[in-house]
Amino acid sequence: MAQHTVESVDAAAHRVTLALEVGLYPIEVLYGAAYVFIDRCFVLLDKDEGKDGPSKGGRYLVHLRGKTELSKKELLDLSGEFGNELLSQALRRKVVKANQKIIEEITTQAIAGAAGGTLPTDFLDSSDDGMDFLDDPLGIAVPWEDKFKKKSADQP
Amino acid sequence: MQVSDVISLGRVKADFALPFNHRAIGSRYVVSNDLGDHLFLTPDELRRLAEGDTVPGDGLYERLVQANLVAAKVDVKAQAERWKRKHQYLFYGPTLHAFVLTHRCNHGCQYCHSSIVGMDRTDTDMSIETAERAVDLVFQTTSPGVNIEFQGGEPLANWDVLQHIVEYARQKNALAGKTLSFSLVTNLSLMDDDKLDYLIDRKVQLCTSLDGPEDLHNKIRIYKDGNAHASVVGWMKKINQRYKDMGLDPNLYRVEALPTVTRPGLTRWKDIVDQYVEVGCKAIFLRKLDPFGFAARSYKTLGYTMDEFLDFYANAAEYILELNKQGVQVMERHAALMLAKILTDQEPNYLDLRSPGGACIGQIGYAPDGSIYSSDEGRFVASMGDEMFKIGTVADTYHHLMTNAHTRAMVMAGLNDTQPDCVTCVYKPWCGQQVEYNYKTQGSLQGRMRDSVWCKKHKRVFDWLMARLERADAEEMKIFERWTSTRVLDHYLQDRSALDTAAM
Question: Is the same domain home to B178 and B281?
Fold first, then answer.
């Protein structure tokens, strides 16, 4: 089964319904994407538990009804754009999480600089001349061939 | 050329290079790090960088060290200081303060961003009381430099308040001691000799709109009381002559003008550039039509695709470069700003090319009724009935304006480090976004850079520049370097001990 499908298109009612597997995207991502469309559409989020019941996870249903007349092509474009927005929101969430520290540092500095506040004590601490950023505690820099190569016979 | 043809992931030596991004330019790759250092590398040189396959003395190694790409050779302390210098704007508040003195205007420009009204609607003027409260806020900024920009409508329509702000701000600055300057964005149609005398005496920099030759300008900028083009060109020449008569360098001191490119102008790139040269402009900022205000409503007749604009841009920019080779000193401002960031350690603090963007912490906009917006563009969105970017009013404290949730959200959303595309983009150290544009075109403060026309425009202009830099000869490099040289326009800075001449 496709994980993200157009469930139905009703051009007469200017409505398109998408179905998403629960678990494909975090619920916050679904809310975030839905919110982007509320100036153009009436958005209703629903959940279809399916025949097999909630234990199978079910599907989210996203009903988008245009605030103006929309052709079938426009409705399909809208559903495609919704899919793109979901992916964008999901990826941005990951990027923000990965860069959370630098984002917080820069934002704090920018707001403090503008408002006249004080700097966080550890921000750009010039006494810190270490090369910690080159440390690799998780072994990310180790080529996977090295990391997973079979141990040679003479190794215990 | 696929990067997978060049780099084998299994052979990457991750601890050799400082994190970098890359992009194919012609037959080579441009590589940049977060400090904005860049290099052009052949595919094999890129492979050697990724694999750490280079040693001292082989030429490539020295180039990589010079560009701060070899991790073991980076002077962390020095580069941290450099990063701090290049991000000076993080250490102070808004510099640009845009005062909308009135919504009244005597022009009916088809693309106008603002919600203009007829000249009899004096109820849309900023009052003296509101103006003073706004100026009080201006002087609370932590920025050492302040530019008060008068906008409208047509700001000359509210002349008394304009004068009052100039005098009141000069008086306040006698104590504040900031680097204070004023600029006036005007269609010049309400200018007269008395006003000009005052503006020149008070060192107010003048900026106007000039969309090209007469037929093009008058077609878009409708002025029922006269010939808009004749009026603006006539005043530009007269004012430029006044500056010359005062002994000011005409290369630096002149009326600045901006064109807004509309559909009828797309094929007229040569005419538009020639018009600017003819009136003595040394810079031309080729602006795309915005998605705000009338421009949004008249998009069907005046609008165009981003590809069409970028073709226009490349033609115009190539022509400008050609003129420079013939000895005509004129630059394309957007390219010049980008070049300054690419080729030098200068930070021009252009609000659309920095991260985070300039909303709230780089500029704020003051509406006639005392509402305060994140920027000019935030105010344009409001003129379309959406107060999304209103961050407060002149009754609020400066601290509240800078620290409220709206401001924080805009700062975070305007950071390149939050964007999936930006974090892997070779142009990241020199680029930025505008949250108002994201919101208007894609519905959220963050937008989606992958299908954002904002991103597309910046990427293509950077691509054009990089392609040009990659194959530039000595003459072209000299021109580009000249475009990056900035000289402080001292004449426009207010004398800090000006109280004795301030007539309140």
Answer: yes
Between positions 384 and 443 of B, the ones with CB within 8 A of A are 398-399, 402-403, 407-408, 411-412, 415, 417-420, 423, 442-443
- Taking 90 as the threshold, does the pLDDT of residue A62 lie above it? yes
Q: Which of A32, A85, A126 sits opposite B80 (nearest CB)?
A: A126
Does the ipTM exceed 0.90? no
**3-state SS class at B235:** helix
CATH of the domain at A55: 3.30.70.60
Residue of B nearest to A101 (CA): B417
A84, A106, A140 member nearest B14 (Cβ):
A140
* Same-domain status, B110 and B74: no
Chain B positions in Cβ-Cβ contact with residue A103 (cut-off 8 Å): 412, 415, 417-418
**pLDDT interval class at A134 (50, 70, 90):** very low
How close, in Å, is residue A109 to chain B by CA atoms?
Answer: 6
Tell me the chain A residues in contact with residue B423 when contact means C-beta distances shorter than 8 Å: 95, 99
Who has greater pLDDT, A88 or A10?
A: A10
In this structure, the answer to whether residues B51 and B188 fall within a common structural domain is no
Say how many residues make up chain A. 156
> What's the confidence (pLDDT) of residue A126?
42
Backbone angles phi, psi at B427, to 5 degrees: -90, 5
Task: Enter the DSSP assignment of B221.
Answer: S
Those residues of chain B that have pLDDT short of 70 are 1, 293-296, 496-504
Do the chains contact at A115 and B399, CB–CB below 8 Å?
yes
Structural domain count, chain B: 2
How many interface pairs between A and B have CB atoms less than 8 angstroms apart?
A: 105
Boundary (domain end) residue, out of B332, B351, B383 = B383
Distance CA B380, CA B290 (A): 10
Interface test with chain A among B397, B418, B441, B450, by most A beta carbons within 10 Å = B418
Closest CA to B108 of B337, B294, B361: B294
Provide the greatest CA pair distance for chain B: 75
3-state DSSP assignment of residue B140? coil
- Give CA–CA dist B255/B452, Å, rounded: 33
Q: Is A118 part of a structural domain of the chain?
A: no
Q: Are residues B24 and B111 in the same domain?
A: no
State the residue range of the domain holding B185: 88-383
Q: Residue A28 carries which side chain, given as an amino acid letter?
A: E
Q: Which of A148, A88, A9, A109 is nearest to B90 (CA)?
A: A109
Residue A130 pLDDT grade (very low, low, confident, very high; cuts 50, 70, 90): very low
* Band (A117; pLDDT cuts 50, 70, 90): low
Averaged pLDDT for residues A78-85:
92
Residue B232 in 3-state DSSP?
helix
Per-residue pLDDT reduced to its tens digit, A27-48: 999 999 998 898 889 999 999 8
d(CA B41, CA B2): 14
In a domain, B103, yes or no: yes
Q: Are residues B57 and B101 in the same domain?
A: no
Q: Using a CB-CB distance cutoff of 8 angstroms, which residues of chain B are in contact with residue A106? A: 90, 355-356, 415, 417
A113 domain-assigned:
no
Its pTM stands at 0.84
